[in-house]
Amino acid sequence: SVKKSDWNEDEDRKLLEAQRRVGNKWSEIARLLPGRAENAVKNRYNSLITKKLAQRTANIAARVSRRHLLT
């Protein structure tokens, strides 16, 4: 049966580690996450990457902002 519940930190960790190891082989990664469909795995990965990129961008912007305040 397909899981529709929220993703937990353990699943996110397994997903990210598996993607680093095997690349974008979503069906292979989905087999490591019982109940998660291939498409749900791909969508979750893309969501996690988007959040990480947004966080990095915010961190860079904050550093640039602080530098301008100091000069």
Short note summarizing the structure:
By secondary structure, the protein is mostly helical. Helices cover 73% and strands 0% of the residues.
> How many strand units?
0
Sheet/helix structural class: mainly alpha
Q: What percent of the residues sit in helical stretches (DSSP H or I)?
A: over 70%
Give me the strand/helix succession: HHH
Beta-strand content estimate: under 5%
Overall residue-averaged pLDDT value: 92
Tell me which oligomeric state these chains represent: single chain
Our count of helices gives 3
Uncertain spans: none
Radius of gyration: 17 Å
What does the overall shape look like? elongated
Distance between the termini: 59 Å
Question: In this structure, how is the largest beta sheet organized?
Answer: none
Features of this protein?
mainly alpha, elongated, 73% helix, 71 residues
How does this model look, in words?
The chain has 71 residues and is mainly α. Helix content is 73%, strand content 0%. It has three helices and no strands. The protein has helices at residues 9-22, 26-30, 38-70. α1 (9-22) packs across α3 (38-70).
Task: Produce the secondary structure layout.
Blueprint lengths: L8 H14 L3 H5 L7 H33 L1
Helix pairs in contact: 1-3
